[in-house]
Amino acid sequence: MNLFQQAPPALGNQYYEDRVLRSYLARVLPADVLSDIQESLAEMGRLAGGELYELQLADRLNEPTLTQWGAWGNRIDKIEVTPLWRRAERIAAEHGVVATAYEQTHGSLSRVHQCALAYLFTPSTDIYSCPLAMTDGAARTLLNSGNQALIDRAVPHLITRDSKEFWTAGQWMTELTGGSDVGLAETIAKQEPGSNTFRLYGRKWFTSAIASQMALTLARPEGNPPGGRGLALFYLETRDEHGHPRNIQINRLKDKLGTRKVPTAELTLDGTPAQLVKGPTDGVRNIAPLLNITRLWNGISAVALMRRGLALSFDYASKRVAFGAPLSEKPLHRDTLATLQAEFEAAFHFAFYVAELTGKSETGEISDEDALLLRVLTPIMKLTTGKQAVMVASEVLESFGGAGYIEDTGLPVLLRDSQVLPIWEGTTNVLALDTLRALQSDGDTQQGLKRFERAVLGCLEGVSDARLVSVVRSALDHSLTWLAKGEAIEAGARRFSLTLGRTIELALLIKHEQWSSSNRFASVGVDHIF
Ligand SMILES: Cc1cc2nc3c(=O)[nH]c(=O)nc-3n(C[C@H](O)[C@H](O)[C@H](O)COP(=O)(O)OP(=O)(O)OC[C@H]3O[C@@H](n4cnc5c(N)ncnc54)[C@H](O)[C@@H]3O)c2cc1C
């Protein structure tokens, strides 16, 4: 009889075990802020490595269901989400995974705190981050809109910690005509005579988290011109007080490669009542605050999934023996994991840097220069980290050998779920083109680019490692000269944006490493004179 039994990978408290997160927080947060938020992070780390992770493994085969018809022939379009998602909703509300950013207990740094909570929460909750991202984005969009009636009506629900009062929000932009070129949208908005209410008619082709209580969506008021400017941004509530859909038919749930716990639906809007959020035109521009937030969440999710794969892989490497020693003692296996860890750490510092700037912009502490930098970095960060997440997830699966390909290990889902990150909230190409637009947002390419350059060079100040500094400088110089040449800019936009992304990632890594080494040295003690 074969007695060998392989020990599976295991997780401990995901906050205490995360050197990268803890070291980063020690650098950017004042000591009193860190000590104030530590308990909330440790608690989320405990849930993520314990109860939620166990529930996630047990929940593996469950999926959301759509019941279109009631027993007596009435259309009900009822969505049931999985047990893990129900638990996740409660924990998210009660632990303030959205609310923390709006309570602003620590000013702009509350956004960093909230992103750290989201980062810990995300990998154990099967993309419950999707409705949370849209909820956060909807709250920000409504607050920015100045529409006091809608702010009073919806925002308290979106940012509450009371799970009974908590609402999530959907974001319905993509139609059959296109998710990138949303200006082609065909949904029509007809105003009810003598009222501010519109009725929406059309088909929405991808609507995630369809169990949400409200949504922000785009539609063209009758008589408006074609294109993005002719669309308006609308607010709607999905169900009436009896729980019936408000003239919304859920035609089917998408049969997706990953994110299978997320109920993503195809809808027909057939007279759905809706309110204008901010004027009868410019819907694409008016929904931008939502996209900035969901792109930030996308980056945080990318690093969260990378971290989860690596946490499992490093643990497994200490348990799996091959050729006479644990994999963790094999130089080539260690080198393979170290390369992935480097991708993760670079992505981590980029995503959280964007969180820092986002926090400043939300509290009004941001300078014009940094506002421009945030505009430039958001698409670059989203596209760079999305690509890294897929690559790292694929390698993580390989690091487990055959087990990485077997469903009941809970590993393959990491790759499937990561694969959505470069697609939704703007594909890599679409964001690469957006990067070019961002660099020109003030009509002068040099402004955005110069601000980017200053941000990168600022990270290198006082850095002694000449080799690393020269790698950053040469990538930066190459990007600047390539852009200045002005040839085939559009065709090269993806390579250009990824180069900018990896350049600032290296610069941020160097900056953190410099701080980390000096800080470690200082903490051991410098002054030895008695
Ligand atoms: C799981 C999932 C959930 C989703 N949930 C939602 C949701 O809740 N709400 C919502 O509104 N949408 C949602 N989407 C839709 C998603 O945002 C779109 O699929 C995405 O924006 C791309 O749009 P598309 O599918 O129409 O592809 P297309 O726009 O047709 O793009 C096809 C390809 O062409 C490329 N491309 C497009 N334009 C250009 C260009 N000018 N130059 C170069 N290349 C270009 C793209 O990069 C892409 O590779 C979801 C998608 C998925 C997969």
Tags for this model:
530 residues, alpha+beta, five-stranded mixed β-barrel, two-stranded antiparallel ribbon, 17 helices, binds flavin-adenine dinucleotide
SSE blueprint:
Elements: H1 19-28, H2 31-49, H3 51-58, E1 65-69, E2 75-80, H4 83-94, H5 99-103, H6 109-121, H7 129-145, H8 148-158, E3 169-172, E4 188-191, E5 198-207, E6 214-221, E7 232-237, E8 248-253, E9 265-276, H9 283-286, H10 288-319, E10 321-322, E11 325-326, H11 331-362, H12 368-399, H13 412-418, H14 428-439, H15 445-459, H16 466-485, H17 493-524
Parallel strand pairs: 3-6, 4-6
Antiparallel strand pairs: 1-2, 4-5, 5-9, 6-7, 7-9, 8-9, 10-11
The structure holds flavin-adenine dinucleotide.
Flavin-adenine dinucleotide binds next to strand 3, strand 5 and helix 14.
- SSE-based structural type: alpha+beta
Put simply, the count of helices is: 17
Shape: globular
Specify the helix fraction band. Answer: 40-55%
Mean pLDDT, as a whole number?
95
Rg is 24 Å
Q: How many E-type strands?
A: 11
Span from first to last CA?
A: 67 Å
Give the cofactors and ligands: flavin-adenine dinucleotide
Q: Please outline the major beta sheet.
A: 5 strands, mixed, barrel
Strand fraction: 5-15%
Strand arrangement, major sheet: 4-5-9-7-6
Helix/strand order: HHHEEHHHHHEEEEEEEHHEEHHHHHHH
Unreliable stretches: none
